[in-house]
Every structure is written in C-alpha cells, then in structure tokens.
Amino acid sequence: MMNRDEFEYALLLHGSDLAKWPDPAAAEAILAKDSRARALLEEARRLDARMAEATSYTPLDSASIGQVIARRGRSPTALRVQVARQLAATALATCIMAGGFALGQASAINATHVDTALIALASGSLDILGDLL
Amino acid sequence: MVADGDQNFPGDELALGGERAFGRLVAAHGARVQALARQFLGSHADAEDVMQEVFVKVWRARGGFDPSRGSMATWLYRITANTCLDRLRRRKRWRWLGLEHIAERADETVPGDERLEHRQAVAAVRRDILDLPERQRLALLLVLLAERSAQEVADIMGTSRGGAEQLVVRARQTLRERQRERDR
Questions:
Q1: How far is A65 from chain B (nearest CA, A)?
Q2: Does residue B121 belong to the interface with chain A, where contact is any CB pair within 8 Å?
Q3: How crowded is the C-beta side of A1, counted as CA atoms within 13 Å?
Q4: pLDDT digit string (tens) for B23-71?
C-alpha cells in the first residue's frame, strides 16, 4: 500500500500522468481516500501543463531537415571557424568606424599631424593621439 | 516511454553511411534536439547552432555507434547533452573574458496571442527551468523533451539510475516550490 510520501515522490519522479507510473493502481488507491494526495496531483497537473507549454516545439520543416543533411559533412571546427570569422568581421567593422570617427576629429588638427595621428591609431597609442588633439 | 523513431531504427544502415537513415534520424529527433538545446541554453540562436553541430558529429561518428551500448536515440542524446554542456562552458569562458553580451543571448520569445497572465506564468516556468542547476536541468529536459526513461537519462549523463531519478525529483521539487511562491 502506497503512503502519501511515496505518492509525492512518485509524482515528482513520473509526473502527473498516472498512465506513465509503474503502478497506477496504487496511486488510484491513495487518491480515493486522501484529499491531500488529490491536491498534490492537481498542483502537479498545473505545473506539468505549464512545463509542457514552456518546452513546446514544432517539428522541423523539410527545408530545415534538408539543410541539416546538406551540412552533415562539415566539421564542427569549420562551424566554429565560421562563427569566429563573423565575430572578427564585426570587430574589424567597429574598429574602422571608430578610426573614421577619430580621423574626423583629427581633421581640425594641423595637416602635418595627420600622418602622426594615423600612426598613433595604428599603434593604439592614445597618449600620442591625445597630444595631437 | 519511447520517442518516435526509436523503434527499429536502422543504426546499422547509418553506420554503413546511409543518407536516408541519417535523414530519418534528423526528421525524428531534430526538433527535439533543438528544443532541448534551446531550453537548456535559453537561446534560440545557440540552439540552432547546437542542433547542426550535433548532427555533424553524429554523421562523422556514425561508424562508431555501438548498439550493444544503448539505442541510437540514447547515443544521439548523449552527443546532444555533451554539446550543450560544451556550449555552456564556452559561454562561461566568454563571460570571464568580458564578452557576456555575446555569450548571453537568452530570449524569451512566446507567441503573441496568449493571454498576458497565462503567458507570464509559462514564461516564469521557462525561467525557472533555466535557473535550475545544470545537471538537474539536463535530466529534466531529457525526460520532458527527449522522452527518455530514468535509465536512459542515467546512461546519457554517466550516472546511476538512482542518481538520474534524484536529479529529476529535485528539479521538479524546485519548480513546484517556485510555482507555490507565485500562486500564493
């Protein structure tokens, strides 16, 4: 005979669908006489419904399946390299934009200092750039 | 509990290089693999990467699949679990390097036509799952999404059956406590 603690443990382990329990008859027996067990089952059903919705998904469409099949020969390293290249491209674009902005600021400087400013930007020396500005 | 595509899955056919068998595996488990990665990592973009990476690994390692060590699905989800854990470790390294804005791409996308209260409750559960300790989260998602038994979860995660059961029980216990706090 299943007691309430055992029922509660089984509820946490198997979930609220009694059909998935190894011994649903034992669960039915305690539910018939224990209102606290019924309340626990109701609470678990509510949680399971929310979990099911929170983790819901749609099957892959044929285009996505085809894409996965087509890419099967690529090495995982190649995938990582692709991501790294995208990150590097983003970083480079940011540097170019920052450099352009700095050059725009430097245009007010004496033209003879432009070469020095470019060298300062290339070497990352903010001190030299600060002196020029 | 047996997920679609588990029974009589042609592991031998895949091992011999069968493209059709591979296609069937992707069709049967691709969405589950992606959903598991999304819930585990909290990011749709990462989940797509992980799904692709998992099947690339499956294809490359197909000759090494050993049916005596478990079903094709168990093998697939072991690769999925390891790939998810690797991705999480990589994120932690990025966070340590100060690149958390790249590492943290968590999304909370939910259909827009749901009632607000209901949508909030579901989103809260999604966050609660994401807040679970790694191994509890993985064990729970293997049960919920991959429909693996406690023994299969144990095989996938390299633990005992009792250990896998404990992970699932503790995960559900935490989610139940959070739900009680919200419903008060």
A1: 6
A2: yes
A3: 7
A4: 889 999 999 999 999 999 999 999 999 999 999 999 988 888 888 888 8
Phi, psi of A75 (to 5 degrees): -80, 150
* 3-state SS assignment for residue A2: coil
DSSP B98-151: T-HHHH--------TTS-HHHHHHHHHHHHHHHHS-HHHHHHHHHHHTS---HH
Whole-angstrom Cα distance, residue B83 to residue B37? 9
Residue A1, helix vs strand vs coil: coil
Q: How far is CA B37 from the centre of its chain?
A: 5
* Interface pTM, i.e. ipTM: 0.80
Tell if the CB–CB gap between B23 and A65 is shorter than 8 Å.
yes
Report the residue from B23, B35, B150 with minimal CB separation from A69. Answer: B23
Inspect the interface and report whether the beta carbons of B35 and A55 lie closer than 8 Å: yes
Count CA within 13 A, CB hemisphere, residue B107.
10
pTM for this prediction: 0.73
